Amino acid sequence: MAEDTTSKSTNELLMRVLQVESPELFDGSDDQPVRVVGYDYSPFCEAVCETCGDDPEMLTIAFETKNGERYSEYYDYFGLPNILEALDKWDKQYGKVVENRG
């Protein structure tokens, strides 16, 4: 995973995904995430043989904590629809819902 290479906007959106999908991380301790430092997305990969399993779509978000340590959170079966749903949930909980004007 390439860290510190994503844009500020992407990192802010992924921090919102962390808040919605892993609220237990945001407990006010020194281990609480303060910024996203990178991410990795793995698309669904169908099994190459009958006895092998499929590799699920997966999102990994790397973050830095209050005390400066770096960790990653892994989400299996997590693609774009899940990310968008998490962002909608974040808007409803913490932000301002923007109406679609299209």
Question: Summed up, what is this model?
Answer:
With 102 residues, this protein is an alpha+beta fold.
Amount of helix: 25-40%
Stretches with pLDDT under 50, minimum 5 residues: none
Strand content bin: 15-25%
Walk across the major sheet and give the strand order. 1-2-3
Order of helices and strands: HEEEH
Please summarize the sheet with the most strands. Answer: 3 strands, antiparallel
On the 0 to 100 scale, the average pLDDT is 85
Helix and strand layout, with pairings?
Blueprint: H1 8-21, E1 33-42, E2 58-65, E3 70-76, H2 80-94
Antiparallel strand pairs: 1-2, 2-3
Explain this structure to me?
The protein is α+β, with helices and mostly antiparallel strands. The protein has one domain (8-94). It has two helices and three strands. Strand 2 and strand 3 form a beta hairpin.
Task: From the structure above, extract its key features.
alpha+beta; single chain; 102 residues; three-stranded antiparallel sheet
